[in-house]
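Hi Y.,

Following your request, here is the sequence exactly as I used it, all 230 residues.
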Amino acid sequence: MTGRDRYHGASDYSVACCDNFFMSQFFEIHPDDPQLRLIHQAVNIINQGGVVVYPTDSCYALGCHLGDKTAMERIRRIRKVGKEHHFTLMSQDMSQISTYAKINNDAFRLIKGLTPGPYTFILPATHEVPRRLWHPKKKTIGIRIPDNRIALALMENLGEPLMSSTLILPDTDMPMTDPYQIRVILEHDVDLVIDGGFCGIEPSTVIGLTSNVPEVLREGKGAVDWLEVH
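Below is the corresponding structure, written out as tokens. Let me know if you'd prefer a different format.
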């Protein structure tokens, strides 16, 4: 099955609970024209405390509601990361970012010029961000506006950023890219896998914006040659 026909709807792996055993749901969502019915179902899962796998413009990511501590801890366990791991608030637009991060004029112009795109920006967090999401020492948060219609549709219908982490499993260096492989490996660990087609294998470029000069903290898919003009 190819083209739009492949994205006709959900392959329902509905939660079948028995002695704490369940299988995740699996939605095939069209990458260029996301089915609103499935987006609404995905948002409902997120709002009910679910952990979802969804596509971005760089690679697949794990996401959950930013106010849900239990879901966040599930992502930590899947990734086996500690408290200093930087979660990212995947955002729909600049107005969402300004609610959760402190942005000066230079940072605003830089972010606006590079987004939507494969960049994560490390910025001082505002008090709208739950303290458990702050970097424990730096009090910062990662912010991202992806160039992916499925991800943007999720945030638009959620009405707020999606707390996210790149889907890189423990003891591996590369993000997962095949949604069917993701389903096989994580079907008992997440509540939903969204198949939005094959993503890339490069994570986003991470830019630190906590000082006067932008700093490349991780070089990924996003180009950094623009730094030469700063």
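Confidence is low (pLDDT under 50) at residues 1-20.

Thanks again,
Q.
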